[in-house]
Amino acid sequence: ESTAGTVRIVMWVSAGGSALFVALRCYVRAAKQKAFGIDDVIAVVATLCLIAYAIVCTMASYKGLGRHILYVEQTNPQHLIDVALLANIGESLAIMACTLGKTSFAVTLMRIVVQPWIHHLLWFIIITMNLVNVLAAIFVFVQCENPRHLWNPAIPSKCWPTHVFTDFSLFVGAYSGAQDFVLALLPWVFIWRLQMTTREKLAIAIAMSLGVFAGATAIVKTTYLVNLSAKSDFTYALPPLLWWAAAEDGLTLVASSIPVLRPLLMMLVGSSASK
């Protein structure tokens, strides 16, 4: 019994889909609008983190991730250490991809809105989100005096109580999901003031609200984190958490890129209509 194949599929669908949308986004911003900005740079870096995450998880899937721990122990005990190490590296990459993806979307909104209170809210989201997520990425490796203990329990080390990192991770997951919903709903506040037809406003508002799916994914991911803390068969229990993290990261990047693709979509629609 193995979920390794599912791990690879979800990882590369998330990373590949994100890369496609971000590449199209960069094309529109650079070639069509001549307005390539810092939010686009952040989106590219987030995509690279997600691709690196997919690579790391793919490597782990060939080492035993997705199989029961008893099978991995009997096949090659060293692979348990490899999977644990790769999982820790992947966790930090997923956190950074998630943080940068949301930061990119927040900066994109700041380029559109004019209301000061929304700018202040977006700055609050950006600062607090980056603070808690950077801490989470760091805590992955500093929760033990000797970080090698995290992937090789045979190495003695004094560590934090298990619940400390788990509780903080739950907080980060919940906060991340809440920010997805806030960022998804904000466009409905200011989009009606833009000089567009009602149909265009509605289409853009809906497109910019696709982050609600990332928020829903974050909630599902957090429930798996709760369940994982009570399981010892980590090589088999871990994959759902990893692929839901990839899905959240991918959906965040796609949702933040779709509104930017409006000129490209208009061009394609116009081209089809003229035939």
Strand residue content: under 5%
CATH topology: Rhopdopsin 7-helix transmembrane proteins
Count up the domains. 1
- Going by helix content, strand content and strand pairing, the class is mainly alpha
Rg over alpha carbons:
20 Å
pLDDT < 50 runs, ≥5 residues: none
Mean pLDDT: 89
Straight-line distance between termini:
52 Å
Helix amount: over 70%
How would the blueprint of this fold be written?
Elements: H1 4-32, H2 38-61, H3 69-75, H4 78-112, H5 116-142, H6 162-185, H7 187-190, H8 198-208, H9 211-228, H10 234-237, H11 239-257, H12 262-273
Helix pairs in contact: 1-2, 1-11, 2-4, 2-11, 4-5, 4-6, 4-11, 5-6, 6-9, 9-11
Provide a descriptive summary of the structure in words.
By secondary structure, this protein is mainly alpha-helical. It has a single domain, classed as Rhopdopsin 7-helix transmembrane proteins. Helices cover 78% and strands 0% of the residues. The protein is built from twelve helices and no strands. The longest helix is centred in the middle third of the chain and has 35 residues. The mean pLDDT is 89. Keywords: Membrane, Transmembrane, Transmembrane helix. Belongs to the SAT4 family. It is found in: Membrane. InterPro entries: Rhodopsin_dom_fungi (IPR049326), SAT4-like (IPR052337).
